[in-house]
Amino acid sequence: MYMYYTYILKSKSSGRMYTGYTNDLRKRFNEHNNKMSTYTKYRGPYELIYYEACLNKDDARSRELYLKAGKGKRYLKSRLKRFLFRTG
To answer: Which parts of the chain sit beneath pLDDT 50?
Structure first.
């Protein structure tokens, strides 16, 4: 049985965040950091700052879309408040 993951990466160089989903989180994270992903290859390196596991691919994809939208961004901002606004 596969698990599907919705994840948030943060660029260490630009501070920008990227949201995605996958069934192999370690492999996908390495792809992002090894410039094998079209959308993220110019902004790395990345750190994984958040992920959620789902039993269903459609649920993970729906969650990705939610986290990219206005309410989802507000949820993440609240959920990751201490991490996103840390100093030092």
So the answer is: 88
